[in-house]
Amino acid sequence: LPPALMWSLLAPCRVPTVPVKNLTGSSPVNPALAGITGILMSAAGLPVCLTRPPKLVLHPPPVSKSEIQSIPGISHTCRKTTKKQAKKGKTPEEVLKKYLQKVRHPPDEDCTICMERLSAPSGYKGPQPALKPDLVGKLVKCGHVFHLHCLVAMYNNGNKDGSLQCPTCKTIYGVKTGTQPPGKMEYHIIPHTLPGHSDCKTIRIIYNIPPGVQGPEHPNPGKSFTARGFPRHCYLPDSEKGRKVLKLLLVAWDRRLIFAIGTSSTTGESDTVIWNEIHHKTEFGSNLTGHGYPDINYLDNVLAELAAQGITEESLAQEKD
Predict the structure, then answer these.
(1) CA-CA distance, 207 to 253, in Å (whole number)?
(2) Which keywords fit this entry according to its UniProt record (predicted)?
(3) What residues are paired with 237 via a beta bridge?
(4) Which of 28, 135, 145, 180 is the most buried (most CB within 10 A)?
(5) Sequence-ordered strand ranges (E) for the chain
(6) Which of 173, 192, 217 is the last residue before a domain boundary?
(7) In a 3-state reduction of DSSP, which class is residue 96?
């Protein structure tokens, strides 16, 4: 066919679309590839229509105070926290004694803290505790074996709150607490739905931590720390499982485990407030950053992260709302 006739036959055809859903490159069509395809199609005389990237929706539509509701079964709508002093009056040796059994005949393996043989004295070279360096103990729940010197040193380098976490399997003994700086946590229901949860309203959590000065439990005591991006807004579906997650997050807040002071993985800034291994959804109406909905596995994943910090349903009976 003559070129003119061929183009006239193609003209009524539907305009091809090259989807570019996400300019970060996470869409099915790479943006650069889509751009090259568009140029080639245009050069051949074919019409091109590029779809617009979806919009980032971090926050819900405006909500008036009269539309905000408290959450049934959870008292109050705000929780403040200050620095809690570590338990005093007991030496590290007295604390660890509750969690250990003495081992008279150590197994033929390495202590995973100092990497010396358990049958030899501890390789720890710091301040010496009031124990013989060749004593070995077994943690009663998980059964892992270490030099007592090494366990005392590990305890002294931690939060010294009366709890211990096995360095091999992460089993927690006692009640684990963190080093979260003082701040405020607000929580309530808003009359909007999350993507993937159209059958219920939304729980909004607002965290607010101001900058301040690091305490003795922080990386650089006496040095100031920054607090970027506060207040931080987070979202849960107002479902039975969503409320369960919120109750456990309140326990994590009271135990100072949601935030810590460290180096930001996104900006590289040191001495700043960072998330502490319990993931939150900070994107309300989209999921372009990966911190939004829909995400069918999120609630189960965050329950597992809370359990790794020693926070389970049993924790709710130990602490008041």
Answers:
(1) 10
(2) Cytoplasm, Metal-binding, Notch signaling pathway, Repeat, Transferase, Zinc, Zinc-finger
(3) 202
(4) 180
(5) 17-18, 49-50, 78-81, 100-102, 136-139, 145-147, 164-165, 172-173, 183-190, 202-208, 212-213, 224-225, 232-237, 259-262, 272-275
(6) 173
(7) helix
Q: Tally the residues of the chain.
A: 321
Does residue 271 contact residue 223 with C-beta atoms inside 8 Å? yes
Q: How many CB atoms lie within 10 A of CB 21?
A: 16
- The rounded radius of gyration (Å) of the Cα atoms in the chain is 27
Amino acid at residue number 204: R
Q: Which domain holds residue 244?
A: 65-83+182-318
Site of tokens 């971090």: 58
Q: What digits encode the pLDDT tens for the residues 127-184?
A: 777 788 899 999 999 999 999 999 999 998 888 899 999 999 999 999 999 999 999 9
Instruction: Answer whether residue 280 shows pLDDT above 60.
Output: yes
Q: Is this prediction's pTM over 0.70? A: yes
Q: In this structure, what DSSP letter does residue 194 have? A: B
Residue 292 one-letter amino acid: G
Residues 78 and 115 in one domain: no
Q: What is the pLDDT of residue 241?
A: 97
Number of independent structural domains in the chain: 2
